[in-house]
Write a structure and sequence with these properties.
Oligomer: single chain
Strand content: 5-15%
Number of helices: 13
Structural class: alpha/beta
Strand order of the largest sheet: 1-2-3-4-5-6-7
Largest sheet: 7 strands, mixed
Radius of gyration: 19 Å
Number of strands: 7
Order of helices and strands: HEHEEHEHEHEHHHEHHHHH
Distance between the termini: 31 Å
């Protein structure tokens, strides 16, 4: 597909991402705007509300296989999770345990918890995490897709790492504390949130793929995300047991020791032995994946 034919995942809204992700005409939205499920907390503060509360959920088909899909709308309150927003996502995972889809696909685009809703938002995130883990325990794979303007931070950064696998574009970002939060707490000399190159070297898709946090790196293209989701569905259902958790913990311990002195992605790419680390931010996904391919999964982590 030529660059002129690409449709940016980063620039698309939640419904456009879903429409390009699943089989044409197969998506059926649940708890849609016509139901007027708005946040009571935002209304009480006389703040703008959205009739879908910034998240779209529903059921669809992908390559003829049933999937449940959720997509956050980053342009509404930064995709932040509040009581209704979180309840819709939690309900999606609870529905998965009853309908047994091939997978749940979660298009994450969120800065975390909605501060306007305080404890209600925090509770919503915790309930979402519990429901996601319950679905996975029932053998339903959960795949996260990250490539929006807000990335995946705060509580949704944790939710992302609870998924069985992540697909990211370079434009996607993943972390716990967002760049502005780090700058506020530590100061601009420690972390300049306006330094876009630094932000992407610390939280961006290429670094997360290098560290093994993301299973696949794709270009900023809706069709590329669709192909990646199809590839994940073609894999065997992931098995999660104590042995797998122990292996993950050992890998994280080794990774922390190996990169203890790293300041950003450039240091990590050097430690991994990748040639010309300074050029890596300029590579497209295909060239970067070819560069990373010779590394074993342990080396990449």
């Amino acid at each position: 597909m030529s660059r002129l034919q690409r449709h940016s995942w980063f620039e698309a809204d939640a419904r456009a991402r879903i429409a390009g992700l699943v089989d044409a005409g197969s998506f059926r939205e649940l708890c849609g705007p016509h139901e007027r499920l708005t946040s009571p907390h935002l209304a009480a503060l006389d703040l703008p509300v959205a009739f879908d509360d910034g998240v779209v959920v529903g059921e669809a088909m992908l390559d003829g296989r049933p999937v449940l899909v959720g997509a956050q709308q980053g342009e509404f309150n930064g995709g932040a999770v509040g009581e209704i927003h979180g309840a819709k996502l939690r309900g999606l995972f609870e529905r998965a345990r009853h309908t047994r889809p091939a997978a749940v696909l979660l298009a994450i685009d969120s800065g975390g918890v909605r501060l306007h809703e305080a404890n209600a938002g925090l509770i919503a995130i915790s309930e979402l995490m519990r429901a996601l883990l319950a679905a996975r325990a029932d053998g339903i794979p959960v795949y996260g897709l990250i490539g929006g303007s807000c990335g995946a931070f705060g509580g949704m950064g944790i939710v992302a790492r609870l998924c069985d696998a992540l697909v990211m574009s370079e434009e996607g970002r993943l972390g716990l504390s967002g760049p502005e939060v780090i700058e506020t707490v530590k100061g601009v000399d420690e972390f300049d949130s306006k330094d876009r190159a630094l932000v992407w070297r610390v939280t961006g898709g290429k670094l997360r793929r290098s560290l093994g946090d993301a299973a696949l790196l794709v270009d900023d293209d809706i069709a590329a995300f669709r192909d990646a989701a199809r590839a994940l569905l073609a894999r065997p259902v992931p098995t999660r047991d104590l042995a797998a958790l122990d292996a993950d913990q050992r890998a994280l311990t080794l990774r922390a020791a190996r990169h203890a002195d790293a300041r950003d992605g450039l240091d990590i790419w050097r430690a991994l032995g990748l040639p010309d680390p300074a050029v890596i931010p300029m590579l497209d996904a295909a060239d970067f994946n070819r560069l990373l391919a010779p590394l074993s999964p342990t080396e990449a982590a």
